[in-house]
Q: What sequence folds into this?
């Protein structure tokens, strides 16, 4: 039995600061208003100690226990996660390549009764996240592998500059690196209608729009507009890997990753991916 099976959401989440079950309360409205303001201004908001500090070690241990199941493969990638030989012009930012050395534990290997599994499917949590993003509701990804994952960045590795496939990224650091492993991003560097290739190229060349850095701690909840903000995890140093849970939601039901992208991230695909190929549910025409 999981350590968390016998305790309630109120015992897991600091509901004094984040009253998930009371959306009409002034406290809830204040948290949501602050989150919306920061998301609109800088594309990201962090809710410190969303998980009660007494459970931080449980959070770390549960995720550390499944981390060895991560699919690990060092790949040459670009920020769009498309073929690096896609026939792009020489000055296109997609021509810049990086070594991606992070790994993912797929959703079907995350215990449903683990803390992150319970949060991902919890209706109160989903409504709270949707409210913070100013959406009527959010849907769990229909993808059996990528809806909820654990991201593992081992010492000496990094998760280089990239954009997310899903519009709304919700994540939680579960284990800090000894040093490095910083989350860095360029807010709102592109939109659904404009790739802003020049700005992206400038960042990759070491200039361009300013880069922000977050000092995240285990148990902090991060809400992020990852489809429109270029971001990375800097190289991890020391003897401890960086672990973070990623809760992926979408405005639209039925979202399933492409066969190529799924195989890249998890080293395998399932019948659901094969069946969905060619009829992907997408809301824009961005490269990735």
A:
């Amino acid at each position: 039995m999981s350590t968390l099976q016998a305790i309630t959401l109120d015992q897991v989440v600091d509901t004094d600061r984040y009253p998930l079950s009371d959306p009409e309360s002034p406290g809830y409205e204040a948290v949501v208003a602050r989150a919306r303001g920061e998301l609109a201004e800088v594309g990201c908001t962090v809710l410190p100690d969303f998980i009660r500090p007494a459970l931080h070690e449980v959070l770390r241990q549960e995720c550390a226990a499944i981390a060895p199941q991560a699919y690990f493969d060092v790949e040459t990638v670009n920020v769009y996660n498309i073929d690096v030989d896609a026939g792009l012009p020489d000055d296109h930012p997609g021509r810049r390549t990086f070594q991606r050395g992070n790994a993912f534990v797929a959703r079907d290997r995350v215990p449903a009764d683990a803390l992150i599994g319970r949060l991902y499917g919890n209706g109160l949590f989903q409504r709270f996240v949707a409210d913070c993003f100013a959406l009527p509701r959010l849907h769990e990804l229909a993808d059996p592998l990528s809806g909820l994952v654990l991201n593992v960045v081992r010492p000496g590795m990094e998760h280089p500059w990239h954009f997310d496939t899903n519009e709304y990224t919700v994540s939680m650091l579960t284990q800090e690196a000894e040093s490095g492993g910083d989350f860095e991003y360029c807010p709102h560097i592109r939109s659904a209608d404009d790739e802003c290739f020049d700005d992206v190229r400038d960042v990759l060349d070491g200039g361009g729009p300013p880069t922000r850095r977050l000092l995240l701690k285990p148990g902090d909840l991060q809400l992020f507009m990852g489809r429109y903000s270029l971001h990375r995890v800097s190289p991890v140093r020391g003897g401890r890997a960086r672990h973070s849970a990623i809760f992926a939601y979408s405005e639209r039901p039925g979202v399933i990753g492409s066969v190529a992208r799924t195989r890249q991230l998890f080293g395998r695909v399932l019948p659901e991916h094969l069946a969905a190929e060619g009829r992907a549910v997408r809301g824009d025409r961005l490269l990735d």
User: Anything to note?
Assistant: Residues 14-276 form a domain with the Jelly Rolls fold (CATH 2.60.120.620). The mean pLDDT is 91.
